[in-house]
Amino acid sequence: MSFLSQTLARVKPSSTIAMTNLAREMAAEGRDIVSLSAGEPDFDTPLHIRETAKAAIDAGHTRYTAVDGIPELKQAVADKFRRENGLDYAPQQITVGTGGKQILYNALMATLNPGDEVIIPAPYWVSYPDMVTLGGGTPVIIAAGIDSGYRITPEQLESAITPRTKWVILNSPSNPTGAGYGETEMRGLTDVLLRHPHVWVLADDIYEHLVYDDFRFVTPAQVEPRLIERTLTMNGVSKAYAMTGWRIGYGAGPVELIRAMANVQSQSTSNPCSISQYAALAALTGPQDYITESRAVFQRRRDLVVAGLNQCEGIDCPVPQGAFYVYPSIARLIGRTTPEGTTITDDRSFAMELLNATGVAVVFGEAFGLSPHFRISYAASDAQLSDAIARIRGFCGSLRPEP
């Protein structure tokens, strides 16, 4: 009898973390590596947030807090939802966790039973299907390819819903594609969900503030208020305020769900770091000019990367509406061979050959449920991005067509 849980046989390690770790190991060995695999801003956390955290230490805010967040932070989160999204939540409808991932995990652990289905559009963030599996549920994947702008249609959603469907996960703008659902597209999905009152909505809004051009962010319960009683709206400070390591995420939903999630958290991590909570409070209530400044930098980098990749032989890269990722197709490179004679059979082999040949680390599309693609995070300096694009262009140009 195996000592380890049988569930683990169905759960994969995070491919994004694996590629990032591999790139670090190669760099430690002296290789010239440009890693574009990690999904985190390369900026420092804003000064006023760091100073608030230091002051919290000096003030003695170093003890246990309420399991799912200090009252001041819950109120700030409620104020944020009201101010920015037109969503009216009371503090008892707010939960704070150790990163956005814990919010999602708590919700699934608190609600899933064997046989429950969770609809997940693909490409998806790598952790969604595995968290569903850990909770005893069944992921139901809907593919949304490059031709549909990496967005599912109302018809696809309608056909995927069954009596066993418990949740649908909507991530806009998306990791890994940066694709976003505007109000019209979101309205099409919410109209479907209104017809199926047993289906709950898990809105992952972590990239809310990183949107470009004339794209306007919306969240499902904002577009359709009648869904608010069966929606968990998740967000956090990681991406918008360059606070990935501080590990603070938050969510809002019906009181019964929030209490159940707190029960799960009470038996796992208990409260998030007290110092990080005060830092997050400063982020939500302090100056917001950092967001505008960083968004402008990311948009410039997006344009640099999209233009550069579309000049690479065999790569097709659409323009994302948000986040800090691109998800280009390499369909035209499948079957080509490297100068050493290795055939590019899929996006995994492309990513590994690219890393070995050029030192550029990307994440293969198989990890996100849609191939043949790869993901680049452009949360890196302009110099690093330009260097990486030049290396990718050289690598693609060296591939030979099928005989």
From TrEMBL:
Its EC number is 2.6.1.-. Keywords: Aminotransferase, Pyridoxal phosphate, Transferase. GO terms for biological process: amino acid metabolic process. GO terms for molecular function: L-aspartate:2-oxoglutarate aminotransferase activity; pyridoxal phosphate binding. It is an enzyme of class 2 (transferase). Coiled coil: none annotated. It comes from the Bacteria. InterPro entries: Aminotransferase_I/II_large (IPR004839), AspAT/PAT-like (IPR050596), NHTrfase_class1_PyrdxlP-BS (IPR004838), PyrdxlP-dep_Trfase (IPR015424), PyrdxlP-dep_Trfase_major (IPR015421), PyrdxlP-dep_Trfase_small (IPR015422). Homodimer. Belongs to the class-I pyridoxal-phosphate-dependent aminotransferase family. This is Aminotransferase. The lineage of its organism: Bacteria, Pseudomonadati, Pseudomonadota, Alphaproteobacteria, Rhodobacterales.
